[in-house]
Specification:
With about 300 residues, the chain is of the alpha/beta class. The chain is built from 8 helices and 12 strands.
């Protein structure tokens, strides 16, 4: 009796099954502009492995139950966009969290406070008229469509950051400052973050950006990263520690507050990663957490101007 030969369809199906890629473990990208902004995160990694990505130093390892990669983008929008694009192409992370320092635009923010960036906006992509400044939304070169002027952060990451602020070590630090940290207690609030290729160290410019955009903090990378992630449909979140008040004393304040501001932001970023690693589903509502009212803002809505 002749053996029955497998059908062509069956053989093709087996080949396709064998060739199908195995689902990769979730990977979170944690970026900062400069080394001090991510040094604490790198030091917390288990089994770190250093890699090169087109010359860029990338460190991979486990952080609180989650596979992560840590890298520095360099300062400025172009560096941030270039590095983000490279990392998304080569590593395809599940989400990206950017952590670092920023100057305060909101008058109630103080050095050491942390802003969860629910939106990001480029403040220097503008038309300069004799009597006014008009802010433009960048255009996507792929399809010609305008990006949102205020790019929205991923809702789930905002929820996790809000939950971390209320229940984690970062939230505890906001309610009562670490003993080693000088100054008044820090707060964790939500707000809009403005990005531009300028170090803002003038009260008049701080007030102008605040009046024009209603942003709460200003820095030099976040909206560029947000724009790339938005185009690539990669969830993103900005977490910024306030280092200065973006006025004439900004340089001196940064020198005094850089490490504290960077550490507070990085601590919250790591707490978000811990929640990602332990709770892949959307978090439960956090209304019952009952934090101090002045310590944690609404992480899913912009702050009032």
């Amino acid at each position: 009796m002749a053996k029955k030969q497998p059908s062509l369809a069956l053989l093709i199906g087996l080949v396709l099954i064998c060739a199908a890629p195995i689902a990769a473990e979730p990977l979170t990208a944690l970026l900062g502009a400069v080394d001090v902004e991510v040094a604490g995160i790198r030091a917390a990694l288990r089994d770190p492995v250093e890699q090169q990505a087109s010359g860029l130093r990338v460190v991979r390892g486990e952080l609180r139950g989650r596979e992560v990669l840590v890298a520095c983008t360099g300062v400025g929008k172009v560096n941030a966009a270039m590095t983000t694009t490279l990392l998304l192409e080569q590593f395809a992370p599940s989400e990206l969290i950017f952590t670092g320092i920023a100057g305060a635009l909101a008058p109630d923010l103080r050095p050491g406070d942390v802003v969860i960036g629910t939106t990001a906006v480029v403040h220097d992509f503008v038309a300069l008229h004799p009597d006014t400044v008009v802010t433009w939304a960048p255009q996507n070169p792929a399809d010609g469509e305008r990006f949102p002027l205020f790019l929205p952060a991923d809702a789930r990451l905002c929820d996790l950051a809000h939950l971390a602020a209320r229940t984690s070590a970062a939230g505890a630090a906001a309610g009562g400052r670490p003993e080693a940290s000088p100054g008044p207690p820090a707060r964790i609030v939500a707000g809009a973050i403005a990005t531009g290729d300028a170090f803002v160290a003038a009260r008049s410019k701080r007030q102008e950006i605040r009046a024009r955009l209603g942003a709460d903090a200003v820095e030099m990378e976040g909206a560029a990263i947000a724009q790339i992630c938005h185009a690539r449909r990669t969830p993103w979140l900005l977490i910024r520690g306030i280092s200065d008040r973006a006025d004439a004393l900004a340089s001196e304040e940064i020198e005094a507050n850089f490490e504290r501001a960077a550490s507070n932001a990085a601590r919250l970023a790591m707490d978000v990663v811990a929640l990602l690693g332990s709770a892949p589903a959307a978090p439960a509502p956090v209304e019952d957490a009952a934090p101090r009212e002045d310590a944690v803002g609404d992480a899913c809505a912009p702050r009032e101007n």
